[in-house]
Amino acid sequence: MHTLIVHAHPGTRSFNATLTATARQTLEAGGHTVEISDLYADGFDPVEGPHHYPDRADEHRFAPLTEQRHASELGQLPGDVAREIDRLERADLVILQFPLWWHAQPAILKGWFDRVFVYGGLYTGSRRYDAGHFRGRRAMLSVTTGGPRRSFLPYGRGGPIERLLWPINYSLYYMGFDVLAPHLAYGVQGAGIAYREAQDFERHLAHVRHAWAERLRHIDDDRPIPFTGWDDWDDGVLAANHPQRWAS
Amino acid sequence: MHTLIVHAHPGTRSFNATLTATARQTLEAGGHTVEISDLYADGFDPVEGPHHYPDRADEHRFAPLTEQRHASELGQLPGDVAREIDRLERADLVILQFPLWWHAQPAILKGWFDRVFVYGGLYTGSRRYDAGHFRGRRAMLSVTTGGPRRSFLPYGRGGPIERLLWPINYSLYYMGFDVLAPHLAYGVQGAGIAYREAQDFERHLAHVRHAWAERLRHIDDDRPIPFTGWDDWDDGVLAANHPQRWAS
């Protein structure tokens, strides 16, 4: 198994950095190969816009999907986007490692979705969801949160974690991935904020690292989150007699 | 009433640009004042990271909240962040105008949340939600989607729009805003993709512009989305006997 870890945290000594290092060590120890896309270290530009498209399909009006399709057809995708796509094509499993900022992924990772999942090249109106480009591959989120676990329970103050991560997981499914349940590390904060002693920080970090390694050792057994797909929909809406309408 | 429109689209002739211009015209015609924060035009940097903090609280380990609090205490916030906060402080109503990209706001606007809503300065553990800094002010999303309306209905293929926008709306509420229901313009796509004739594009644009102006003329009558607040929670979780647990 070959794994791509897309890593999105600015701190080189952060919990997130440790989790990415733990994933690499654990997977390599299991005989797998690992590649890391470190968005901050690479200086990835998350802003989709005209500056990435010197040869425009429409000089008059900039529409991202129009330009993505055009650049893709001409083989003129931006270099960093082409590199990320190559990395994705090699991977059997994609892990997105990030801290939850404002109930979502950091901007640098949001822009990775905006720019790398190229319209025309990697998806079209008919080539998405369970007919998506990456079908047969697996993807999962590994997320740290500042708030404690109870805040993210169904009636928690922070909002149910499934609801917060749904737009991201659904985007991965949109591209055809089998999406595994996310791995969560709750109550992770800056060393100067939540931990009275340096050893409290280190103890929490050791606990989080252990839990993540355990999860990864058994990742082959994980079953993906079930989503509805093309056979379930009637003109874009779940068919009225579909059993899931009554189960949810 | 003074309104701040935070505008996040790279195309100067886009639907989004027209909607922002429509909002300005409509509100000014109603005797209100309007300010626009055009994130693309301003070259806003959405990436939170060490490069914004020359004078660090912790040189050893970069944690965004630690550095935000430190810079805020020293009065050394980055210039663009200080400018955005000044704009927010002047506004009675904040409108976020953006296209739905990958089930969320574009990266440039996601980074506006990551960087501008400064820990320490604008919120702390006790100064958030209905005790948040911007309580008494109103905020709302104005969103264009590529998919048609039926895709975003409760059983739609794109996922219920309320669920997609929830992380963003909840972030506004977290800062204390009274959040109005979003304004949606569905089925908006690049001129080269969805519209057979230029006049189809213009006709759709006229329809969308009209609906948005109508909404804004009556914006004073809008009631905010109800959220639970401090009095409803018991140690971070909605109290077991709270009526909303049984109503949802």
Automatic annotation (TrEMBL), chains A, B:
<comment type="similarity">
    <text>Belongs to the NAD(P)H dehydrogenase (quinone) family.</text>
</comment>
<dbReference type="InterPro" id="IPR029039">
    <property type="entry name" value="Flavoprotein-like_sf"/>
</dbReference>
<dbReference type="InterPro" id="IPR051545">
    <property type="entry name" value="NAD(P)H_dehydrogenase_qn"/>
</dbReference>
<dbReference type="Pfam" id="PF02525">
    <property type="entry name" value="Flavodoxin_2"/>
</dbReference>
<dbReference type="InterPro" id="IPR003680">
    <property type="entry name" value="Flavodoxin_fold"/>
</dbReference>
<feature type="domain" description="Flavodoxin-like fold">
    <location>
        <begin position="1"/>
        <end position="199"/>
    </location>
</feature>
<protein>
    <submittedName>
        <fullName>NAD(P)H dehydrogenase (Quinone)</fullName>
    </submittedName>
</protein>
<dbReference type="GO" id="GO:0003955">
    <property type="term" value="F:NAD(P)H dehydrogenase (quinone) activity"/>
</dbReference>
<keyword id="KW-0560">Oxidoreductase</keyword>
<dbReference type="GO" id="GO:0005829">
    <property type="term" value="C:cytosol"/>
</dbReference>
